[in-house]
Design brief:
The protein has a domain at 9-74. Helix content is 0%, strand content 47%. The chain has 105 residues and is an all-beta fold. The two termini are 17 Å apart. The protein has strands at 9-12, 21-29, 32-35, 40-45, 56-61, 64-65, 69-73, 78-80, 82-86, 92-96.
């Protein structure tokens, strides 16, 4: 079970976008995530009339390592660490380490 998932609100805790908040758009692999509007890079794209792609320079969101992002806790308005807890019904859920509240509840 991953601590950070697609759709989570996160805070960047290291790198050139440190302190900014965004939403996780995708999990690239087990250790990398793409955050909306963060870690932008310029990419030069060749035109491809078959695919309908116009050439030029485009901004692309590049992957970040999961160690450089932390889940955003809306109650405390800060970044928070994530732990796991098993409920009475056997469901395994993510919880905020600072408060013990269930993530997304």
């Amino acid at each position: 079970m991953d601590k950070i998932r697609k759709g989570d609100k996160v805070v960047i805790i290291a790198g050139k976008d440190k302190g900014k908040r965004g939403t996780v758009l995708a999990r690239v692999d087990a250790e990398h995530v793409v955050v909306e509007g963060m870690n932008r890079a310029k990419k030069h794209v060749k035109p491809n009339p078959v695919k309908g792609v116009v050439g030029g320079v485009v901004d692309k969101d590049m992957p970040l390592h999961v160690s450089n992002v932390s889940l955003y806790n809306p109650v405390t308005q800060k970044a928070d660490r994530v732990g796991f807890k098993t409920l009475e019904d056997g469901a395994k859920v993510r919880v905020f380490r600072s408060s013990g509240e269930v993530v997304g509840a």
